Amino acid sequence: MKILLLEDDFLYASSIKDYLTSLNYEVTLLADADSACELIASTFFHLYILDVKLLGTNGFEVLKYIKELKITSPIMMMTSLSDINSIKKAYELGCNEYLKKPFELDELKFRINELLSHFYPDINNLFYLKNNYSYDFKNKILKQDDKIIDLTLIELNIIEYLLLNKTRFCKADELFTLVNMQNDESYIRVYIRRIRAKTNENFILSKRGFGYKINE
User: Fold this and answer.
1) DSSP string, 57-77
2) Omega before 102 cis (within 30°)?
């Protein structure tokens, strides 16, 4: 799973990144808000971990930016600030977890596990679909019976996102960050067509005005 870590204390951030990488998370480390916002607009992450106190700005601004993009991935704020107003502001802006520094790395692991298990309950499961398809979240493999379907990383990311939101149709603008392209629905349609060509026409359902949905 992909985590964006925004922290401007290099040594502190490196220790967190190394620890999370040892837990098999894919961690992108950034130190400034501008770089973070640029990447957030173009890349999908399962979790955002944001430091509140940053040089030049603060993590609250990045948190607001994530919400403006209508991104639904969970957000964890971490800070040495412990006053109730800071905590209140973080939750009012839409964060899902607030971690006070200093903290033990094991505490961070437990908090992340709780968030991810709540937001992605199927993430460690083998998910079964119609027409004998199955998706292995852990190994990022789509199969039909015992045959592995050859898919690109972007195609796999789209399938994963639709599976994680399997109860509803997902609008095209939710998928823009998955394809690393400009906000143009034609790019989404291209990738949907490619996935259907490698699976079948009804593998992903579409409904005008509502978006796309995996066919369970």
Assistant:
1) SBHHHHHHHHHHTT--S-EEE
2) yes
pTM over 0.70: no
pLDDT tens for the chain, 216 residues: list them: 789 999 988 898 999 999 999 988 889 999 988 899 999 988 889 899 999 887 777 889 999 999 998 888 999 998 877 677 888 888 999 999 998 888 899 999 999 988 988 888 766 677 888 888 989 887 889 999 889 999 998 999 999 999 988 889 998 888 887 776 556 788 889 999 999 999 999 999 999 889 999 987
Kindly state the tokens that stand for 184: 């143009």
Q: Which two tokens stand for residue 165?
A: 């939101």
- Domain of residue 76, residue span: 2-119
| Count of domains forming the chain | 2
Separation between Cα atoms, residue 37 and residue 63, nearest integer Å: 9
